[in-house]
Design brief:
Elements (H helix, E strand, L loop, with lengths): L18 H13 L2 H4 L9 H4 L23 H6 L25 E6 L5 E4 H8 L3 E8 L4 E11 H8 L7 E6 L19 E5 H5 L4 E6 L2 E2 L9 E3 L12 E7 L6 H5 L23 E4 L5 E3 L7 H4 L16
Amino acid sequence: MYIKKHKSWALPEHLATDEHVYLNRRQLLSRIGLAGAGLAASQLPFASALAAPITGFPAPQNDAYSLDRPLTMEEEATTYTNFYEFGSSKNIWRKAQKLVTDPWMVTIDGMVEEEMVLDAADLIKKMGSQEERLYRHRCVEAWAMAVPWTGIAMSELVRVARPQAGAKFIRMETFHNPAVARGQKQSWYPWPYVEGVTMEEAMNEMAFIGTGMYGKGLEKQNGAPLRCVLPWKYGFKGIKSIVKFTFTDQRPVSFWEQLASNEYGFWANVNPEIDHPRWSQATERMLGTNERLPTQLYNGYEAQVAGLYKDMDGLGDRLYR
């Protein structure tokens, strides 16, 4: 049974950035050479005054993506998170505030008709209208939450990129700036963070490019300004703060796969029958309530995504690793 939740958290229209303010800001950035040169906005004394997230919040809800459980409280979802660039603890949200997310240049390259570098806000504009979807989120560490994401179907990114016929995968890469993200000074990690999906996964209706949560733009600790949302996979597949999409015919080797492929494989589909080598995946702990719920195959999205893996081993090892 689907339950539609009233949007008590929706951002009032009077709090949204006026369009003329946003446009004037972008014109100023262009004049001083920030919009295309990749110069860090943090070098400017007025950078914080210029910073403005991607507009369009709150976005209309797509009722086809609803939930059978209550939404996680916003404070829980935005202050308990993994972002190893800023440290290995869950409470890294304060450290992440150092990240300057506007302007934010994104590269689309590899096996595409034409490579491009553009600001995240311009990429979103090319991709089309944003919408809100209510999705389950399941961490490989066996905690879970229910989130109102804002964003655009990943298939729209593919449309904008115009990949060549031979492209089979999308390799995604996050930023690399150890001066801001001190966790990136830890040399035993293979920075920058890399993740990947197959073209078929990217074109699936559930794959989402996230731009916001709870009716607002993404918080920095949650992956602003662009992140990948793959609700049938474990959360480490949902790469944050993306700066590059590379279309390729070679399967990417992801960040955690490089470190421990026996624990964090490329596929990483949620499966209660395949335990992590160090803990069970049979149940999950809901943030905020600590309620224990049974883990569902593909995180409850079997009907939407099982066809992607019909030639694999059913409930077997490949669905996890």
